[in-house]
Amino acid sequence: MKNKIIYLICLMCLFSGFARAQEVPKRGIFVSVIQDVPVFSSRKEIDKLIDFSKKAQIKILFVQIYRANKAWFPSKVADSQPYRTCLRDLSEDPFKLLIKKAHSQGIEVHAWLNLLSLGNNKESLLIKKYGPSVLTKNLMEKKNIEDYKIDDQYFLEPGDYRVRRDLSIMVGEILIEYPDLDGIQFDYIRYPDVKPSYGYTKTNIEHFMKATGQKSIDDNSLIWKDWKRSQVTGLLVELVKKVRSIRPAIQVSTTGCAPFVRAYDEAFQDWPSWINQHIVDFVTIMSYPPDVLGFEKFLIDAKKRTSTFRKVNIAVGAYKKEHSINVFAEDFKFCEHANAGACVIFHYGSLLKKPVLADYLINPQEKKMDSKH
Questions:
Q1: If residue 369 lies in a helix (H) or strand (E), which one and from where to where?
Q2: Nearest CA to 192 among 276, 131, 128, 118?
């Protein structure tokens, strides 16, 4: 109890100054292609999203157009069947239509890309093209493709030159096809963080030994861990370079795991350095603890690690709080007083499932939150 009181006092000291003369963070929202009903399924759903965003004062839409090596845009690298289906149903490019309608209301649109995760898509074009050699792996024997699955997903090896080349080509496709796009956000730019003994592809091992002079690999070695971290950052640097060569002024961002110890030691993702070294314009940290205290703790830790907290967006997990609506409200209120760059709802589909969450964003003072809803 004593430790909790001390923690709360520190919390009040850290954030009390923010309430005075602070710049209110923008509001954003993630829009997933796998929600029910998908936004790209009709003009009606696109209009519905824009109308809600206007009412809820949403200023940034992070719209998913790439996941599991499937594309909701024309691509030669990814499977564009989802794009072709939407194009047929709407008779025009749904993402271009969404960008146009959002801009008419002063709302930014950022392309949200799930990069290194292939989901459970073992038939992905990248696997068909290169085989499982592009998938990161541990040292356990692999007899079939299912043995590569990690946390019900297939993960690409970030240091593999084939992965980097094809993802870079894909990013170029997006930027050329959508010149009015406001930003691009790289998600899943990390190693898997479930039992994090990955990176043992033939190519990665060869590159590691050549670069470091090591003759073997100790999974607990700092040299090996730093190498894996450098592969993730190296991929990001390469993609940012590609973006800047085509659209120098566009906003470039990533998502980041939280707490930081998880990001750094398990996902090998040093996202604070990406901010502090000006590699990206901002990072959206993704952390969805079940209670308010845990959420606040992660935010405080994140603030300590960055040169400017205004380059940090905070994702608020509506999908985790569909049955804990008061916790969602408290999380969001805390976010809006934390002096971050933006508070970003994850995700729009959860608001459709639980309208009381959406109502809170539109009328926070009028709506009485009731966890029984």
A1: none
A2: 118
Q: What is the pTM of this model?
A: 0.92
Of the candidates 47, 57, 49, 178, the residue with the CA atom closest to the CA atom of residue 106: 57
Closest of 282, 285, 289 to residue 253, by C-alpha: 282
Q: Are 181 and 174 in contact (CB under 8 A)?
A: yes
Q: Tens digits of per-residue pLDDT, 133-170?
A: 999 999 999 999 999 999 899 999 999 999 999 999 99
* Token output for 293: 């205290």
**Six-digit token string for 323:** 């049955």
Backbone angles phi, psi at 301, to 5 degrees: -60, -40
Examine the pLDDT at 115 and tell me if it is beyond 50.
yes
Only one residue has tokens 């934390």, namely 338
Phi, psi of 228 (to 5 degrees): -65, -40
Q: Which two tokens stand for residue 140?
A: 């356990």
79 SS3 class: strand
Q: How far is CA 203 from the centre of its chain?
A: 27
Task: Please check whether residue 285 is in contact with residue 256, taking contact to mean a CB–CB distance below 8 angstroms.
Answer: yes
Of 327, 324, 190, 208, the C-alpha closest to 260 is 190
